[in-house]
Amino acid sequence: AGMILGTAAYMAPEQARGKTVDKRADIWAFGAVLFEMLTGARAFEGEDIADTLGNVMKVEPNWQRLPASIPPRVAQVVRACLQKNPKQRMDSAQGVRLALEGAFETAAPQTVATAPASASGGRLAWMTGLAAAALIGAAAMTLPAVRYLRQTPTPAPPETRLEIATPATSDVVSFAASPDGRQVVFVASGDGASRLWVRPLDTTAAQPLAGTDGARSPFWSPDSRSIGFFADSKLKRLDLSGGAPQTLAPALEARGGTWSADGVILFAPNGLRPLSRVPAGGGDVVPVTTLGAGQSGHRFPQFVPGGRQFLYYVQGPPETAGIYLGALDVTAVTRVTAADTAGAYLPTGPGSAEASREGGWLLFGRQGTLVARRFDAARGALSGDPVTVADALAINAGLNLGAFSVSATGLVTYRAGGAVGTQLTWFDRAGQALGTLGAPDATQVDPALSPDGRQVAVSRVAQGNTDLWLIDAARTTRFTFDPATDKWPVWSPDGGRLVFSRLRAGIQDLYQKPSNGAGTEALLLASPEPKNATSWSPDGRSMLYGAISPKTSLDVWVLPMAGDPKPWPFLNATFTESRGAFSPDGHWVAYQSDESGRVEIYVRPFPGPGGQWQVSTAGGKDPRWRPDGKALHYIAPDGHLMAAPIASSGTALQPGLPTALFQPRIAFGGTVVVGTRQQYDVAPDGRFLINVSVDEATAAPITVITNWNPEAKK
Predict the structure, then answer these.
(1) Separation in Å, CA 594 to CA 149, 668, 672, 674
(2) Distance between the two ends of the chain, CA-based, in angstroms?
């Protein structure tokens, strides 16, 4: 038991693995001998036994060696005998005999017998004649006139599932199968910074990709030779043949991209904006879609075969949200279906062009499962009943993104699980968890502690709508009730008011409301550009907010809360600056910027002018002051919470060397991206309240499905 017995070059794959064998292993051996008789070469060769066995299990014979003169039926028999999966192999010698019945009716044995007998040609003619004699003898032994290959259709290959274990990750939804179905790229941290990893499916090891620190939402080029991704508030591409990543366009948030065969990349530059396009080699960025009434953003596009039509997800209230179908240079769009996640198009057969003529499947997340429905892209219409692909699907509800991907060859990949859970957790400076606040939730983001540290305001989704909620030690209550999208809360210094962003009909303005819930929301600032408040000065006179300019960069502005209400730019450069935060004394503003080519933390005096000091030394995001103003905290690229001493004297500042405090499992990725999300805050007593992922340590492996065919199961 468990021993491998036999001659390596003629062993069936199951035999080479030491598994139980039956008569189908003999059929394999017959096929290997027949291949050698017809070609003069072994079907499986190697320098030693180990190499030979490896080729038996993984490599196909060189079918080009089969002589063109043999009848097609003979070639079919050889292939049927050498199927690596025994379930797809011919199962008996009788079946082989029936398959060969009449195989040489059109052959000309006398021609073979009288072929010129040169040194090499004579040997091949002798082998071909020997094969012919053996096959004619086998055929003569059969009496039935059954035509096996004509009467028995080739069975559909069986569905198989395998799992890919990945290094630790808090971004379980960021992965993609290559169009050729041979590789999977995913985001993971391993022992260092979060970055892209690639796992070829014919190997057992994944490799990290240099230059992709902080990457999210990867997608492939049509030829599977390049990868697009988002990092450092930019859309980038990496050619697997070598070289550093190339920046293609600004992209404040990682909200998905797709690459057409015509060299067009369609992507979401911001979760609150329409889709844009850019040439795959770089160039002008051109808007493609338009936000409709009630829509708050377009994201996660995917081209369908043909390269003009594309699927994408529309965020908004339940009557508007869902998967849509659009086309390049066409304004009309079609709402395909309501869904919890963006969708993916799966061809029905090999080759996307052929599949597109027959229609395919639309895969999407629904109520925690991965489902599929028949989809006709030409009409933008679904048909038939939903089919369950996976019973449990990991979903990032805040992004409307499911943990699944498909390839043009029909490969399906997914991670099992449910909604990506998060939990507000208290930590001390040493990283010791001190307790939790509120219940676990899959949608809450942007925790903002009240000045007294007794409440936290968050944005979270309930019944398809995003509102502000207040959480304290006793209860969780809804704070805003408008059908619009309310996000990014900021407390007034006295704790009496909350300022937040409200997104309605594609316009995002600032509103305020008393924190005790009395009164209604009042419009604070209306302007065309999307904006979000980030910090309120200790004296209550100034509000910092981030505004997205037409050039798709992010700048820091000041809104006077007393006197002249006209906003003015505090930081307004050609690069991206965001997350402005007042110091406890109101004399300094910390912020993050990519002016060096990497996102770093800086400090400037307020209201200026004055100097500029870099605080972080190796990347950082989300600056938050310690309550005494003597240190700045931020998140490093590897997810560590950092502390940098700050000393000031008059108009001069002296940052100290940053030190790592601990590495929390920050929700939705602890990577450095210039965006508007934050996942932690600092309490008046110096504790940290962090929105952590509760699923990272047990992130499910990526399941790979080959030959998924629900029709074959009926």
Answers:
(1) 65, 21, 10, 8
(2) 38
CB crowding 450-483: b at 16 or more within 10 Å, else e: bbebebbbbbbbeeebbbbbbbeeeebeebbeee
Q: Which of 252, 259, 253 is nearest to 238 (CA)?
A: 259
Residue pair 706/649 in contact (Cβ under 8 Å)? The answer is: no
Instruction: Determine the Cα–Cα distance for residues 9 and 97; give it in Å rounded to an integer.
Output: 23
Return the amino acid letter for 417: G
* pTM of structure: 0.64
User: Could you read off the pLDDT of 413-463 as tens digits, one per residue?
Assistant: 999 876 666 889 999 999 999 999 998 887 788 999 999 999 999 998 887
Please, are residues 313 and 323 in contact by the beta-carbon 8 Å criterion? yes
Helix (H, G, I), strand (E, B) or coil at 474: coil
Tokens of 657: 């060397």
Distance CA 172, CA 164 (A): 13
**Cβ 24 vs Cβ 89: under 8 Å:** yes
Sheet holding 264-267, edge to edge: 257-259, 264-267, 276-279, 286-287
- The Cα–Cα gap between 244 and 269 comes to 22
What is the rounded radius of gyration, in angstroms, for the C-alpha atoms of the chain?
31
The two tokens of residue 529 are 């550009």
Name the more confident of 284 and 664: 284
Outline where 40-118 has alpha helix (H).
Answer: 49-58, 72-81, 93-100, 109-113
Query: What is the Cα–Cα distance from 559 to 609, expressed in whole angstroms?
Result: 17
User: Do 632 and 621 meet the contact criterion of CB atoms below 8 Å apart?
Assistant: no
User: Which positions ≥6 away from 41 have C-beta within 8 Å?
Assistant: 62, 65
Comparing 235 with 699, which gets the higher pLDDT? Answer: 235
DSSP string, 40-58: SS-SS--SSHHHHHHHHHH
Is the backbone peptide bond immediately before 607 cis, with ω within 30 degrees of 0?
Answer: yes
72-76, 190-194, 540-544 — most confident range: 540-544
Contact criterion met (CB below 8 Å) for 281 and 274: no
**83 CB contacts (<8 Å, ≥6 apart)?**
89, 90
